[in-house]
Amino acid sequence: MYFDLNDFDEAVLAPAIWEITRMITSIFVGFDSLKIKQSEARDAAAYFLKIYSDTLAKGKSKYIEPETAKGIVKLFLDNVASRKQKELLQQRSVEKNGKLTLLIDNAHFYKIDKDLKKELLNFLEEWLKTNMKYKNGFKILDTAFRVAGTGSVGVKRYAFLIEKLQKPKKYILVDMKQAIASSIQPYISTPQPVWPSEAERVVAVQQRMQNVSPAFLSCATFKNDSYTLKELQPIADRINFILIKDKLKDIQLVIEDMAMLTASAQLRSSGRQGSAIADELIAFGQDSRWQKKIIDYAVNYSNHVKKDYDEFAKAYQVKYFS
């Protein structure tokens, strides 16, 4: 079990400070939605920047596991550690005529056209055959359209139910998600690495920045679209800040962990295809003069985010999007 950065769909080569500004803005937006005073949000933002900078300044990446976790993150890891793959399969599958299939509940999984389904099953079977690591080790049983995450709405995404041939009655779920260009791309002038596909971009950055990446993490091309593949984990989860909104000490510990993990991820990916080398990141962490400007900017931008959301909510209510 470990606690780490998770989503790399928007990853681009950009100033390190962009990610930090995004995070600090998130603190102000999040604290406001939880009805926590802005003064406490400022303290939390300053604390994030201090831990982030201190971690960079030391130049050594770290990670979190149950043995080193503290507070709510430790409880979080202890809780997810008790979950089993079998439980996930019981929730997401059903037996029909002696065969195990995905449960089409129109919430997590949706039925797909039979011709597309056949193409998908054939595609993944061929993909497995061409990968020596997985060759002859798996049997694909079923596939369905998968819905997961607000940011993935409108993206082609599929789940596969796969049996391990070496271990009969042992199954895994594999996620196959279409990779599209980062939404940041139109706004950045930094020359970008040349990636063979959008999926290659997402997977490469994820492998560099995470301490441990999920099984099956790889790229594939299906019907001229690039996709990322990874195993669905029974232990994947997120911290629910609503449950700890009145426990500022717990929130502070989570923010401390997030700051350390962000800096560690940047250190792991340093010196790659134009990214800053570790010495540059260390020097950046040792200079704190930029921190107040980031907080002031994030306060203003969090108000902008709220305004954008209010406009979206009003448009939604009058059925603009339908």
Structure write-up:
The chain is of the alpha+beta class. The protein has two domains: 16-81 and 246-317, no CATH class; 85-231, no CATH class. It is 44% helix and 15% strand. The protein is built from nine helices and eight strands. The strands form two sheets. It has a six-stranded antiparallel β-sheet, with helices on both faces. It has a two-stranded antiparallel sheet with strand order 1-2. Strand 7 and strand 8 (225-231) form a beta hairpin. The radius of gyration is 22 Å and the shape is globular. The mean pLDDT is 89.
Portion of residues in beta strands equals 5-15%
The helix content, as a percent range, equals: 40-55%
Sketch the topology as an H/E string, one letter per element. HHHHEEEHEEEHEEHHH
What is the strand tally? 8
Low-confidence stretches: none
Strand order of the largest sheet: 3-4-5-6-8-7
Distance between the termini: 42 Å
Number of domains: 2
Which outline best applies? globular
**C-alpha-based Rg, rounded:** 22 Å
- What structural class do the secondary elements suggest? alpha+beta
Summarize the biggest pleated sheet: 6 strands, antiparallel
The overall pLDDT average reads: 89
How many helix segments? 9
Quick structural summary:
With 322 residues, this protein is α+β, with helices and mostly antiparallel strands. The protein has helices at residues 16-33, 38-58, 71-81, 85-92, 114-129, 198-209, 248-268, 278-286, 291-317; strands at residues 93-96, 99-102, 109-110, 138-146, 157-164, 171-178, 218-222, 225-231.
